[in-house]
Prior knowledge:
Blueprint: H1 2-39, H2 43-55, H3 59-72, H4 77-92, H5 97-117, H6 122-137, H7 141-161, H8 166-180, H9 184-190, H10 203-216, H11 221-234, H12 238-248, H13 256-272
Amino acid sequence: MSEFIQSNLDNMSIKTLQLTGILILIPFFGGVMLQETQAQPNKEELLEQASEYFSQSQESEALKAYLDVLKVDGDNFEALWHISLLHARIGYRAESKAQMREYYEESLKYAEEVLQKYPEEGRSHFVYAVANGRISDISGSKVRIEKSHVVKRHIDKALEMMPEFGPAWHLLGLWHSKVANVGSAQKFAAGMFSKGLPKGASNAKAAQYIRKAIDLEPSQTLRFKLDLAQHYQRAGEDQKAISVLNEVLKMNAETEIDQWNLERARDLLDDLM
């Protein structure tokens, strides 16, 4: 009988110890889970941080932040179109054509996704035009001709939806500049394809639309004026290019990207002098 009682007491002691251990562990793991939950930023916080990076031209940081938004909300419109645009912008400054292509293809991938999910949004058409334009820049004649039609169609759609959106006018100006000044070899190649080159491109419209973009988006004056100077060079108007470049070089660099653009402006001016 005493052995039976002792056995029950032993079992009770073991169960008491097990229960005590569980009770001790519950607040520990509960606290860890609570800390992790509290430390995890919500979608609004991530978007706010991403937007701040973007406005300050911290493009790599903005890209990472918008990708984090997609982990929380895979269909988020703001994240999708910004990610596409940021891949195009960062890729433009890449050191090699292979790196450019990698970024541009990612830009197009996200542009296709945002256009499929949000076809009624002007920025969807805008980034789709940007991505196709960038891929065109590093492609052969056939692709360039095909992409020129795609870019024009979607930039027109973007401006129809967002007539006061400066970056879209800037892109339209670049389209006119590049199409109006294609070389003779590319014109010959265009004649071999059914669509040919798009009609209506002109140097006058290129300058007009880039200047309109500067008026609508003054924060991008340095970058847009550099593109205006490059347009004038492309069109054979070197004196106008030099004049605009001198204006650019009087501007102050507020970001690393501004500094990069100023260095490009100096190099272009040296080439023209």
